[in-house]
Amino acid sequence: MVDEVTGMRGIRLADKDTYTARFNICQDCCNFMYGSTCSVCGCVMQVRARLADGKCPKKKW
Fold it and tell me: What is the pLDDT of residue 4?
């Protein structure tokens, strides 16, 4: 799924450092489930954290 989204035309992606920082925050969050999913919004966070305009539903990033 991540490869499909990041390969789409017209999708603005965050740079690697931003993605890594965001995803590290997700991994430490009590709402992060199954190694991929946010229990607040239901998103796959490897995708949401990669989007330039992605936002954390708990406003952590």
Answer: 79
